[in-house]
Model the fold of this input.
Amino acid sequence: MNAADMHALVDTLDGLAEATWDKVLRGPARGMKFGEESLTDHNLFELDRACPAVEVYKFDHPAEALNGADFEWYIGGGIQGWVGLRFQAKKLDDGAYAELGHRVVGERQYDLLLRLAAADDMWPFYCFYNGWDGPWPSGVVNATCPVNESPRAGKAGGCIHAALEHFGCAIAPAHQVAARHRSPVRRGRLELDDYLARSRPWSHLFRRDGSACDVMPSRKIATALEEQLASWSGPPRPDDEDGALDDVLELPDPPRPGRHAELPAWLAAVRRGEPSEGAYRPKVAVIVDVERS
Done:
């Protein structure tokens, strides 16, 4: 991928985030309440259709469904290796993520996500599908902006790094989400404000941190992305007024997964058009091959 292709990928992700924002905000009033799975399927189908470097594989009957995740991404290429990310999706409903504390076989879903992502050398993240009527919440840090300007609709007069609607698909490190949810200060909190300061538009996976227009270098994206993910997974910013609470969260050490030299055998087989019966498979797998011309 050249720089133009990377910019096209970022623009596509922002466009899908804007469409997601509209669905989450306006769908219920029109009798169309979209769920996480339908939003994921639509977004990843359109991403596959719009970007030649992206391949999406959907599995109707995953061999192991209980891993706490909704989809996985593998970003990189055969020469530089692959950075693996595992996502759990949650949709905003009436200003809160109602299912954030969901349990799977007696275990919090986020604990399952963290545990199995560590075992599989994957970066665990949440993908929040958002859309609300009103401005950026007062007093909430914008992690995408070095000077903490608040995002506004269409970037009009606010942060130049992201528009408000780009948070329609926002990602946050899962260990920070888990720590916030089980905080002794705000145990079980589900409200948007508790997680927004730790969120970034998903397009920022491919954008240099703190940049309004620079994209990741495709030839070294695995290294650049690893460094950026590690930075995102660190302590909250000093100007996060609510960040002081994290002193009592028992925040675990941020994950530092290793790079995958090759795609997992089950995914490589499917990519070749071969069966992978009996192998682990997520619900949806995404390959972003930046070395693909």
User: Anything to note?
Assistant: Helices lie at 3-26, 36-50, 109-119, 174-181, 193-196, 221-232, 265-271.
